[in-house]
Design brief:
This protein is of the alpha/beta class and 394 residues long. The protein is 27% helix and 19% strand. The protein folds into 2 domains: 54 residues, no CATH class; 321 residues, Ribonuclease Z/Hydroxyacylglutathione hydrolase-like (Metallo-beta-lactamase, Chain A), CATH 3.60.15.10. It binds zinc ion (2 copies). The site of one zinc ion has 8 residues, from helix 5.
Length: 394
């Protein structure tokens, strides 16, 4: 049943406006391409977007936010955030802006009013420290206990990059060197960022613990830097070493999470994550150019959720900018992301991934343009949309 909505949201035979009208008629919200399950939505056409129980699959991918980059330039796409749901629990990859709201809208937090939407959150996995991937971490963290009422699970496991040893490069090299932000921690990783966050919001946190009797947030979140011992050196330019095996990250009995280092130069470390569940495997790329490590991680995956850029959109983005900003931005985008032409042919096909789901998408590019990723790819292509649900297995 869930497949129906996915098909409607991506059916090339349906003009975008038709799909939008259809989905709006299902009460799915104003976002073009927003997907709900036909089975849940049809009998309750006027149901608000916050209703739960859409896709009944035991394991599913929920694209909470599909926008790429730190621009607020689309009413349809919020910041990048992907949920893997298995057996009533969910795991989040990245926390772009708007993620908290999308969690509530999606209903993945459950429908029990006595239990907060974070009561069944099992883990958070951050791919890299760019703001479009972590901007909502402060909101999720700071408002954690008030939204985790009724939680009986262990603390939420949070994994992400550790501290970056080398400050970012100056590009182009002839530019005057800008002053480092936070010179005592210019490459703060996940644990260090969270510690700084606690200090920045000490006034609020002390109110909550001392006056309101709330527990310290360390009892709700277990924050970890991913251990890179034995993986080899990341180059000063941010290019990762070639890995011969995935990095074990976490396992909770039902779901095993592994990672690899991807190439999002000059940003490093940058991770992709693989979730192996009893119903199938899901790989989420994070931000990367074509990465051999990722091709390995996604070998024979059931679903590869991959970032993508539209070269024409890049030109639109940089066109109004002064050359000193446009040149390094264009360079960064092409050197550290994967184009429409590359993602199907050079990544998903070579990995043997059965389904390719595009996400981290810029505004202003049509679905027809994104679908050019089919060229050279023999699997099924899905163009992602906010709140789209994709069943895995069974
Ligand atoms: Zn990004
Ligand atoms: Zn990035």
């Amino acid at each position: 049943m869930c497949d129906t909505s996915t098909r409607i949201a991506n059916d090339p035979a349906l003009p975008a406006a038709s799909r939008r009208r259809f989905l709006q008629a299902l009460g799915a919200g104003a976002a073009a391409g927003t997907a709900v399950t036909a089975g849940a939505a049809a009998p309750a056409a006027a149901a608000p977007a916050t209703s739960s129980g859409r896709c009944p699959a035991r394991t599913k991918i929920v694209l909470l936010g599909t926008g790429g980059g730190p621009q607020w330039n689309s009413p349809d796409r919020t910041g990048i955030c992907t949920a893997v749901v298995h057996d009533g629990r969910y795991y989040l990859v990245d926390l772009g802006w708007g993620a908290s709201h999308r969690i509530v809208q999606s209903g993945i937090g459950g429908s029990d009013a006595a239990r907060g939407p974070l009561s069944n959150l099992a883990g958070v996995f951050l791919t890299h420290m760019h703001s479009d991937h972590v901007a909502e971490w402060p909101a999720l963290y700071l408002m954690g206990y008030t939204n985790a009422t009724g939680r009986t699970l262990p603390p939420v496991e949070v994994f992400g990059p550790g501290d970056r040893a080398v400050p970012p490069r100056v590009f182009p090299p002839e530019r005057p060197e800008p002053e480092l932000v936070g010179p005592d921690a210019p490459g703060a990783g996940t644990a260090a960022m969270t510690d700084l966050l606690r200090r920045a919001f000490a006034s609020d946190l002390n109110d909550r613990t001392r006056d309101q009797g709330q527990p310290d947030l360390s009892t709700l979140f277990s924050v970890n830097d991913i251990d890179l011992t034995g993986t080899g050196e990341i180059g000063a330019d941010g290019v990762p070493p070639r890995l011969t095996r995935p990095i074990p990250v976490w396992e909770d009995g039902q779901v095993r999470v592994t990672a690899t280092l991807v190439d999002h130069r000059p940003t490093a470390p940058a991770f992709a994550f693989r979730f192996d569940t009893p119903d199938g495997s899901i790989v989420v790329s994070g931000d990367t150019t074509v990465s051999e490590n990722l091709v390995d991680l996604a070998k024979d995956a059931d679903y590869l959720v991959h970032e993508c850029i539209d070269p024409e959109a890049v030109e639109r983005i940089v066109a109004p900018l002064p050359a000193e900003i446009a040149t390094p931005l264009r360079e960064h985008l092409f050197a550290s992301h994967t184009t429409i032409e590359q993602v199907g042919r050079d990544v998903a096909e070579r990995a043997g991934a059965r389904n390719l789901v595009l996400t981290h998408l810029s505004a202003g590019t049509s679905d027809a343009t994104w679908r050019r990723a089919r060229r050279g790819y023999s699997g099924r292509l899905v163009v992602g949309a906010d709140l789209m649900e994709i069943p895995v297995g069974g």
